[in-house]
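User: Hey, quick favor. My workstation is busy. Could you predict this chain's structure for me?
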Amino acid sequence: MTVVEPIPWFVEPVRAALAATPSTTMPREGSRPSAVLLMLYDHGGEPGLVFTKRSELVRHHKGEISFPGGGMEPGDRSLEDTAIRETVEELGVDPAEITIIGDMAEMLTYVTGFLVKPYVAHVPARKVYAHSEAEIAEVLRVPLRTLVEVGREAEWEARGYRFTTNVFEVGPNVIWGATGKILRDFLDVVAPALELPWPRPAGTTR
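Assistant: No problem, here it is.
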């Protein structure tokens, strides 16, 4: 017998906030279409997000914290399909467990040339994921409340570039770069609807 989990209280406010925010597109010339999935789950009665720590075997972003996702493939009917397919491949989840509740504006990763479309989904809470060890070294689950407490802007240097980026330090792990920007954009949209104290002043936490 399949046990159906009740829909958490935060799903509808997030859905409404995303629907009320324009989802803009960007020119695709010279870039590779891709998609990521922001997986919202019930973290003890409050919203949490699932992140992945990339393995050292992947081609791009080795060892970095990211959302599940990747490049669009010929068999994908849409970028939403891309986000779901990549999530299933990386984390071993049942696609029937993924409920898309909205999307966000595209963003371009200037170093790798990916044009990323973020989608937001509600998924059941899990203690264990059957993740692909070739792609994923670790799966992280982080409450949104923790993310708004640690989020800040900082000067960063990577791959020979120095730039300002959104940084979220969660224990020994640091979310930054494209993932940090997507996360910042997501919190900008949904934090007011969830009555979370965001944004933080640039360069500060708490």
